[in-house]
Amino acid sequence: MIKYKKDTDQIVTLTLEMTGRSANIINHKLGLAFLPVLAHLKKEKAKKALKGIIIRSAKKTFLTGGDLDYLYQSNDAEEIYNFSQTLQGVFRELEAPGIPVVAAINGAALGNGFELALACHHRIAIDNPKTRLGHPEVKLGIMPGNGGTIRLLWTLGLVNAFDILSEGTTYSPRAALKLGIIDALATDEADMLDQASAWILAGQEGRRIWDKKGGSIYGGSAKDPSVAQSVQFIAAGLAKKYHHNFPAPQAILNTLVEGSKVDFDTACRIESRSFTELVLSKAAKNMTKAFWYDVNAIRSGENRPKGYGKFRPRKIGIIGAGNMGSGIALSCLMRGLEVVVKDITKEVADRSRIYVKDRLLALVAEDKITAQELEDRLQRLETTEFSEAFEHCDLVIEAVFENQNLKAKVTKEAEVYMDEYSLFASNTSSIHITDLAKYSTRPENFVGLHFFAPAAERPVVEIVRGKLTSDETIARAFDFVKAIKKTPLIVKDSWGFYASRVQNTYILEGIYMLQEGYPPALIENLGRQVGMAKPALM
Question: What residues contact 470, with CB distance under 8 A and at least 6 apart?
Answer without folding.
Answer: 444, 445
